[in-house]
Recover the amino acids of this structure.
């Protein structure tokens, strides 16, 4: 399905190349901020001014479509990919190179291979996660699906192929479980991370199924779950029971990963392989359950989480109905509550794993969207918060991009 | 038009797919339901995958009716006098 005037750019495959480590820098001059919001009923783009105080809504795009993730390619600053489905139609990917004025559908969206009758067959319910690949691989993207599968596009999202080293791996298929064995919203492949120093060094998370790493572009994978806890009473050695919710790599130090898990907040310093549960330093009455986590773009000791209630039946709403962000400035040794501007009571929010994001400005801007359709921002690294929009549909994902 | 699918059959198009077809009714070539959908996809690329998954299963919330009777098999034969209706299953609140 294409709108008039849309074009799809085609480029040749690009071989992976080693890349030198670069330390991200804050933008030296004011630039405009873009916040990309994916919801259960469509997508919105919010254009901010240089002070990130006033916002212009552009949307809805795809009204009525379920948009699981909306991402702007930082490599060219103009290509948008939207992972879409509807309540009735199968999943697809839409692509725009003019900030959503026109969209063109992928010629071959992510799909599992057809298998002979009698064999266990899988079909993609939706694409859950989109990640642009390394800067040296223009037009390469990765997609994670539900049920869990990993896909790669080498033509800017027009056509997608399975990463067989994962999708056809019998051990991984066992860890992924069946379509009915995942988390309540379906088993998800998420947190696809590309090492900025090496395009072939990849990570991903599976809910459920753990965190995994490849050093050869996805041909081979190894679990990275040591130190991660699972729900009490289950065996942590069985990867099926591991439920990482969101993993982030520090742009300023790609050897440091932070993770928000169903069972705690963690940090991993490579080449180490054992996660440290830094969430134990959170206040006990708050706990360290949540979905999303944001890392500072230039300081690997800083991260932000948005705790959710994880007691008994797992409400996964703001603890005691009082939303708050917690930030650490020492790698998780201590956490500080940040709730200025947020409701002080009776706000039973859920913020999903893709719906908490940061920008690259100085000071860092933070953004999150709730399942009740509110979009919040902080231009002060979480110290105070204000509302960008309310009354949106259920927010599934929030991403940022800097323009100009 | 496939050589083995000579018939022209009228298909009513479900509303979620009308952005592809631009019409609520399309005349398609085919001798089976699957053949009609192949022709639909050839004329409006991307439509088949949104109706039928990669394992050849009609998606959970899509339904077909042949002359008013529900059909569930892509191999269902059709003939020129038939009318096939594609609808989205009603669900949700």
């Amino acid at each position: 399905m294409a709108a008039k005037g849309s074009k799809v750019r085609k480029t040749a495959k690009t071989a992976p190349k080693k890349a030198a480590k670069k330390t991200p820098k804050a933008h030296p001059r004011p630039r405009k901020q873009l916040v990309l919001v994916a919801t259960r009923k469509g997508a919105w783009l919010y254009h901010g001014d240089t002070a990130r105080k006033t916002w212009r809504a552009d949307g809805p795009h795809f009204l009525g479509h379920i948009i699981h993730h909306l991402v702007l390619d930082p490599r060219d600053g103009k290509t948008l990919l939207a992972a879409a489905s509807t309540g009735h139609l199968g999943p697809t990917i839409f692509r725009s190179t003019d900030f959503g004025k026109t969209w063109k559908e992928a010629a071959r969206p992510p799909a599992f291979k057809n298998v002979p009758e009698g064999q266990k067959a899988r079909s993609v319910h939706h694409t859950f996660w989109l990640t642009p690949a390394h800067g040296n691989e223009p037009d390469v993207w990765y997609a994670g699906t539900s049920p869990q599968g990993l896909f790669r596009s080498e033509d800017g999202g027009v056509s997608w192929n399975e990463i067989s080293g994962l999708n056809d791996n019998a051990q991984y298929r066992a860890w992924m479980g069946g379509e009915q064995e995942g988390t309540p919203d379906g088993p998800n492949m998420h947190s696809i991370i590309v090492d900025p120093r090496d395009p072939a060094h990849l990570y991903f998370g599976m809910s459920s199924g753990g965190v995994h790493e490849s050093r050869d572009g996805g041909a081979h994978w190894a679990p990275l779950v040591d130190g991660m806890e699972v729900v009490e009473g289950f065996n942590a050695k069985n990867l099926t029971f591991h439920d990482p919710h969101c993993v982030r790599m520090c742009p300023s130090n790609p050897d440091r990963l932070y993770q928000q898990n169903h069972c705690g907040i963690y940090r991993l310093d490579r080449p180490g392989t054992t996660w440290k549960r830094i969430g134990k330093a959170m206040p006990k009455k708050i706990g360290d359950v949540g979905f999303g986590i944001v890392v500072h773009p230039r300081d690997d000791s800083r991260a932000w989480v948005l705790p959710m209630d994880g007691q008994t039946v797992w409400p996964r709403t703001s603890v005691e109905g009082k939303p708050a962000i917690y930030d650490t400035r020492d790698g998780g040794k201590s956490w500080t509550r940040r709730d200025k501007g947020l409701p002080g009571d009776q706000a039973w929010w859920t913020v999903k794993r893709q719906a908490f994001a940061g920008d690259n400005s100085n000071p860092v801007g933070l953004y999150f969207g709730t399942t009740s359709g509110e979009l919040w921002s902080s231009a002060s690294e979480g110290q105070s918060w204000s509302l960008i929009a309310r009354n949106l549909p259920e927010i599934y994902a929030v991403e940022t991009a800097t323009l100009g | 038009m496939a050589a083995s699918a000579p018939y022209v059959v009228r298909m009513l198009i479900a509303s979620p797919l009308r952005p592809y077809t631009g019409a609520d009714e399309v005349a398609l070539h085919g001798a089976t339901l699957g053949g009609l959908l192949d022709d639909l996809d050839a004329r409006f690329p991307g439509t088949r995958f949104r109706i039928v998954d990669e394992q050849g299963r009609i998606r959970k919330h899509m339904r077909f009716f042949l002359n008013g009777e529900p059909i569930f098999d892509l191999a269902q034969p059709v003939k020129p006098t038939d009318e096939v209706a594609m609808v989205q299953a009603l669900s949700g609140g």
About this structure: Helices of chain A lie at 164-167, 170-176. The two ends of chain A are 30 Å apart (CA to CA). The mean pLDDT of chain A is 91.
